[in-house]
Each structure stands twice: as C-alpha cells, then as structure tokens.
C-alpha cells in the first residue's frame, strides 16, 4: 500500500512538473521575444487550424488530391511569404487549437477565431483582419417560424464548443438551450434532423452552407457586438510580439488592397464549387481509403505493443516483489480510471512539451498504453484460471519458473483468454477513432472532412459505419478461425 501511495505521489509530481514546464517558456519567451527570429531560423511557419469551416478553412478534393484551402489559408500564405519562410499546416479539432499554440505545436492559429477577453489572457492576437458578422442557420422549412433572432427564444440552438457563437446565444437569447459540439458538420446534421432549431455561425460560413445546401437558409443575428472581440484575428503564443508585428504588417497590406474581398473569398468560392460539383461518395473514395489505412495501422501497432506491455504488467502484478506489483497496480488503475481522450491529449500536448512527437506517433503511444492496461488484466485473469496442479506438475519435472510460465502456463492461459483478447483487438479498431482530435487522418477524421466538403451529413456517416463493420467483422472471422484451431489442437 505504501508503494502504491508513493507511486501515485510520483505521478502527480511528474504531471505538475510537465505542467510547469509548459507554462514556463511563455514567461521566458515574453522576456526574450525571439519569436520571429526563431520562425525564420527554422524556415517554417506552422499554422494550426480546423479545416471544417468554409470559407475560412476547408479541404478540397481536386483530381483525387486533398489540400487545405480557404480565406485563412491564403492569409497565412501571405504572412509566410512576407517573412520568407515555408507555411506548414497542422489540422486538428477547433478546441485543440489554442492548446497546440501554448504547447509549442504551432506558431499561430487561424480558424475564424474571435479575440475574446478570456482568450487574450492565454494567447496574443493580431489585429482583426475580417469582420464577418454573426448569423443563424435554420431549416428552410422553418423560415416563417424563425424569421429573426427574437423568434429563437426558448428554443434549442447549437454552436461549436468554446466559440463566441456559443457564448453569444447563451447571453442574449432568453430561455435558450445551448447544444455544444466540436464539429460544425455535426451541428448542421443535428439541425437537418430537427435535433436543433438553429445553429449559430460566422456569417460567411452560414452563407456558404446556405448557398451549397438548398434545405437550409441563413438569417441575421441582432447581437450588439464589440468590434474588438467579435472579428476574426490570428492567435499567437503569449509574448510573441515580433511575430505578431510581422503578421500585423501583412494584415495592413491585405486590408489596403482589400485582398480578402477581391481575391481570397473569390478563391475560396471557386474551391467550394469544386467540392460541390461532385458530392458522390465514390468521388471521395481516396479519403475513406486513407482513413481505413491509418485506422488499421494504429490498431495493428497498438495491438502488438499493447500485448507486449500487457504481458509485462501482468507478470509484474503477479510477482512477489512488492515494488513491481505496486507499479503495475498503480499503472493499470490509473489508465483504466482516465478517459482515452484525455490520455491522447496528454501524450500529444503534455509529453510534447518535452519531446515534439508527431500526431500519429502520439496517437499510437496513447492507444497502446491504454490497451496494455486492459490486456494486462485479461492476461492476469487467464494465468489465474490455469490449474495450480499444472504448476506443481511442471516443477516436479524440474522446469524453472521461466520455463513453466513460457511453456506451460501462458499457452493454456492464451486459450482461455482468446475470446476476451479478440474483443480487445476489435475495440482497438473502434476506439482508435479518438486520435482524430489531434489531427490523425483516421476514418473518423476523413468522415468529417467529407461531410464538410460535400455538405452531406448522413451519407458519409453511413459509409464510415459500413467500413468499420467490414473491418471488425473481418477481424472477428479471423479470430474465430484461430480460436477453432486452438480448440482443435487441445
């Protein structure tokens, strides 16, 4: 018990230490302010964005190739060009963008982001580069029922979690019930299936949806907005004064030449037409194929590592050494007691403060560490299920403990735990979808991109469901085959 307490205290100290390290660079950075020089030295300007928000940022499928485009991307390209570096784009969910900035995963964030007072406490913002305004998206059939913002009182309204639209609706619409979701595509699907009466969006995004989907329309809001916090601005890490100044110089040139209205929005509109010219799922087969590929890679690698880790942890838990047993118990209970999503975020952003791990590697590590804890308990249960007489008989033959475990106990335990182990492998395929929150292009990530590109809410979901079923059903048949062979051999 003492060892377990000590282990938990050590874990807490590690977490606190990593948190302190993630915060410390901000103050140092503020004092030295080498942000622009650092970007120019490495030769890349890393942009974090959530490409599901047309016309600000979205993905286009052009001749079978995918790329992130939009008004914000055009602005980022100009800034990168002006400071003579290459633009690198990292894709992730909207609510992870500022975390990526604070932990050094990105140099700046563009995502139709509003510089609210609460956000200004943790990051720096550029000058406002665009005042899009606020709209509501409603079903066309409800146009007479909800002609304006006032008519939305006491209704269910959706908005992206953590956005200005969420807070504005909560503050200014009487009796409203706010439903927050991570993806705009999820909100639109909820609207079209009548789970919501309206969705709060930036005006250009609402108009883009209305223009490309005849079943919805945009209505204007009547919010009394503060221009200093409701326009779109670029977010930077706290203390990045020189980088912010460079961005502001580019923004002034963009405003002077009116590039957003004359060039960038027109370019975004052309890309939107490319996406909506052919919205068949066959046109996006490469997206789904890539999603399946990454899903299988994550599940396969995580499964192998999880088994190896599970065996080690199971043996540690069954050992007579109290320290080893305490470490195994502490690890298993900690991992099983925290959500996989939190673990993925911690590995990518928390551990990323010390080691800058790619999103795919971070996702595999997190899923592997999580799976290892559950597999350890499955293996421990299998070992305990083997009759004690088997151990005694092996000892009477003069076998060592290692030989007994390797040649007698584990083979029999494997037969007992195979169904449970198979269920864990199947769960890995489905649970690996959580890595999409850090931008890994698995099946769920690609599903959301296709929904954003095509403005079709249900069909991409159906295709993903079928693909997941094919993967899990195929794996089930393979596992059943090997289970039958093991039973036959016994």
TrEMBL record:
Residues 1-30 form the signal peptide. InterPro entries: AA_ABC_transptr_permease_3TM, ArtM/GltK/GlnP/TcyL/YhdX-like, MetI-like, MetI-like_sf, Solute-binding_3/MltF_N. It is found in: Cell membrane. It is a multi-pass membrane protein. Pfam families: BPD_transp_1, SBP_bac_3. The keyword Transmembrane applies. GO terms for cellular component: ATP-binding cassette (ABC) transporter complex. One of its GO terms (biological process) is amino acid transport. PROSITE patterns: ABC_TM1 (PS50928). The keyword Glycoprotein does not apply. Its main location: membrane. GO terms for molecular function: transmembrane transporter activity. Residues 292-479 form the ABC transmembrane type-1 domain. Keywords: Amino-acid transport, Cell membrane, Membrane, Signal, Transmembrane, Transmembrane helix, Transport. The chain crosses the membrane at residues 296-319, 340-367, 457-479. Belongs to the binding-protein-dependent transport system permease family. HisMQ subfamily. This is ABC transmembrane type-1 domain-containing protein.
